[in-house]
Each structure stands twice: as structure tokens, then as C-alpha cells.
């Protein structure tokens, strides 16, 4: 069911809303041109595991572990490990037509959507192990770079369809520097020697069970519109700014969602439902189940002019989600809301 009201650009009664602080990124759903090739990449390079009992010939559900799933709060510190439910971190769906490499390149255009999704490792030693593994096994064509962001240390690569991927570890929240409600972030070189010296013997054996999707970073066409949506409507805090980019988070995390205009301001809207080209299908956020809070959130979105599509996506979430729904941001990027 789709519930919709017309957009009210003049509604100014939305700036005080704050989303539940327990919000986290649940998973990312990507469209890929060759499912078998993508699965091999995500298994061999990143160490994902396929949930074979849930995957099909056209869609694969990937997670960090086949037996456990980590439950984190918004500061990304471990609360508990749930051995009952296994939720995917990444969903891959093969596009409708089997593109060769030439077609794949032709489909790349300036469009709103994914800049990268970020895989958060629970400890620094895993980042050191991943970097060693990557140096030995990653084809250089997939490498993007490395950086120290003050709050975190990051490695950047892309998959065979040029979907951007960040692999990172957070410094302790007590080490982050805040100026009021803004967190200090930079882009400095990663100290690889120190990373290896502090973790000389760590071996990469795949993503550890406590791995999560830490954040998503999106290409958008207008930063003012994205600020209005993610801060005033979605209810996230605006935690940092960078030339051409804004960062947003629940609670006091550095960012769960970032937006940038680095592709330009005249880019096309996202075409999430076009399954003929690779890219972002949607990303999902998860919140605690509270019927009153869910109803208030839906009503808020409707009042502010968003289409609220109420669809139970059992196949997507590996469990019945009668309360789940999705909305679109100003650039047509699809966001799935899940509750537990």
C-alpha cells in the first residue's frame, strides 16, 4: 500500500524532530551485472559468506558470519550477539540482462545513488589483516585509496560494477573531537606502517562476526535539499560538513549517512526500480519495534509530503516485516525502514 500527500515545501514545523538514537544501517541492496562474478569478489576479497538457504539464482544474501550476527548501538559498540537471527549485510541481485563489459561501461552515467557503502570492522587488527590480504589478492584496478579521518581509518575499493566500498575501523568515541554538535573529521594519509607494526601477526580469515554496515555515502544533486530531508525530516543530526558534502547521524555517531555533490548538481535522479543496470537498489535502516513510534514516523513522513510504501519484504529481510515501509529521498534514493 502506498500512502501519499502532496509535498509542502513551506512546512517549517519539522526542525525539532530527532530519530530514535538506536538507528543503524541494516543492509545495502545492490544490482550487479554478473551475480556469480560479484559473489566471488565479495567472498574472496571481502570475506562475506553467502546465506545459501535464502539465496536464489538471481539474488544472493551475504553476511559476515553463518552462525552469529552482532547487535550494535549507534556508537557501534557491541551490546550482544544474537545466535537466533541472521540478517544479511549485503543483498546482490543480478540485472535483467547479462551485460558484457562494454555494456557495463555504457551504463555508467552521472546519476544520484551510491558513492560507497562502508563495512565497519570491530577492531583495528582486522583492518591490518584486511590490508595485508588486499595487497596480496586484490587486482589493482579495484583499489581506490586509503585515509585517516580522525574518527576512523579507512580503505577504499570498488567492486566489478564500480559500486564503491569503504572498509574501516572506528577509533574509540572518547577519542573523537567535538565542537558543539559537530565532529572533527579530516582526510589524511593512513599510517600503514603503524597499522602493521601494531598488528604484526593478524591473519585475514574473512569478515569477523561483529562486522556491520557502518554508513552509506550518497551522490545527490542538491545539498540544501538533502540537509532538509536527512536532518529536518528524517531526524538525523548534521554532524559535519566538507567541501561539497554533508554528514548525518543518529545519537552521537560521526555519521550513518553522508551526501555529496561531487558528480555535479545536474545529475539525474536515481532510478531504483530499473533492474537493467548496476547500482544501488536501496539501503535499509533498522529501528526498535515500537508501534506508537512507527505510526508517528509514518504519519510524520506523510504530513511532510513523502510517499510511504507499506510493504512486508519477507524475502529481503529473511523474516516477516509487517511494519516495514520505504520512502524516497529528494533524489529518488530508496530507503527501507525495518523494525525489531
Task: Tell me what the structure shows.
By secondary structure, the chain is α+β, with helices and mostly antiparallel strands. Helices cover 19% and strands 32% of the residues. It is built from seven helices and 21 strands. The strands form four sheets. Strands 1-19-20-21-18-2-7-4-3 form a nine-stranded mixed beta sheet, with helices on one face. Strands 9-10-11-8-14-17-16-15 form an eight-stranded mixed beta sheet, with helices on one face. Strands 5-6 form a two-stranded antiparallel ribbon. Residues 1-14 and 67-84 have low confidence and may be disordered.
In short:
This protein is an alpha+beta fold and 340 residues long. α3 packs across α4 (192-198). Mean pLDDT is 86; it is low at 1-14 and 67-84.
Helix coverage percent of residues? 10-25%
Which architecture does the CATH hierarchy give at level 2? Roll
Rg measurement, Å: 19 Å
- Given helix and strand content, the structural type is alpha+beta
- Beginning-to-end CA distance, first to last residue: 21 Å
Give the strand tally.
21
Strand order across the largest sheet = 1-19-20-21-18-2-7-4-3
Q: Could you give the order of the helices and strands? A: EEHEEEEEHEHEEEEEHEHEEEEHEHEE
According to CATH, the fold-level topology is 2,3-Dihydroxybiphenyl 1,2-Dioxygenase, domain 1
Shape: globular
Amino acid at each position: 500500500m502506498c500512502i501519499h500527500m502532496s509535498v509542502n515545501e513551506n512546512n517549517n514545523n519539522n526542525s525539532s524532530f530527532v530519530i530514535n538514537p538506536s538507528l543503524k544501517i541494516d543492509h545495502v541492496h545492490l544490482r550487479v551485472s554478473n551475480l556469480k562474478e560479484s559473489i566471488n569478489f565479495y567472498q574472496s576479497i571481502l570475506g562475506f559468506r553467502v546465506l545459501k538457504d535464502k539465496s536464489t539464482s538471481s539474488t544472493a544474501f551475504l553476511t559476515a558470519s553463518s552462525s552469529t550476527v552482532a547487535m550494535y548501538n549507534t556508537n557501534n559498540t557491541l551490546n550482544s550477539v544474537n545466535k537466533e537471527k541472521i540478517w544479511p549485510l549485503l543483498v546482490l541481485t543480478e540485472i535483467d540482462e547479462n551485460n558484457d563489459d562494454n555494456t557495463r561501461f555504457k551504463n555508467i552515467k552521472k546519476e544520484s545513488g551510491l558513492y560507497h557503502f562502508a563495512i565497519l570492522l570491530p577492531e583495528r587488527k582486522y583492518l591490518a589483516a584486511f590490508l595485508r590480504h588486499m595487497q596480496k589478492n586484490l587486482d589493482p584496478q579495484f583499489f581506490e585509496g586509503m585515509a585517516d579521518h580522525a574518527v576512523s581509518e579507512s580503505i577504499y575499493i570498488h567492486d566489478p560494477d564500480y559500486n564503491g566500498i569503504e572498509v574501516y575501523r572506528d577509533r574509540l568515541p572518547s577519542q573523537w573531537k567535538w565542537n558543539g554538535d559537530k565532529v572533527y573529521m579530516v582526510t589524511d594519509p593512513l599510517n600503514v606502517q603503524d597499522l602493521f607494526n601494531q598488528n604484526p601477526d593478524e591473519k585475514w580469515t574473512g569478515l569477523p562476526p561483529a562486522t556491520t554496515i557502518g554508513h552509506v555515502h550518497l551522490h545527490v544533486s542538491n545539498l540544501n535539499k538533502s540537509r532538509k530531508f536527512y536532518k529536518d525530516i528524517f531526524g538525523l543530526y548534521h554532524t559535519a560538513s566538507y567541501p561539497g558534502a554533508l554528514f548525518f547521524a543518529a545519537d552521537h555517531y560521526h555519521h550513518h549517512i553522508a551526501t555529496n555533490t561531487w558528480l555535479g548538481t545536474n545529475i539525474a535522479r536515481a532510478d531504483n526500480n530499473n533492474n537493467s543496470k548496476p547500482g544501488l537498489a536501496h539501503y535499509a535502516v533498522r529501528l526498535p519495534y515500537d508501534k506508537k513510534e512507527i505510526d508517528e514516523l509514518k504519519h510524520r513522513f506523510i504530513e511532510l509530503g513523502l510517499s510511504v510504501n507499506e510493504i512486508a519484504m519477507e524475502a529481503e529481510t529473511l523474516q516477516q516485516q509487517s511494519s516495514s515501509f520505504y520512502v524516497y529521498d529528494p533524489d529518488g534514493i530508496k530507503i527501507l525502514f525495518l523494525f525489531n
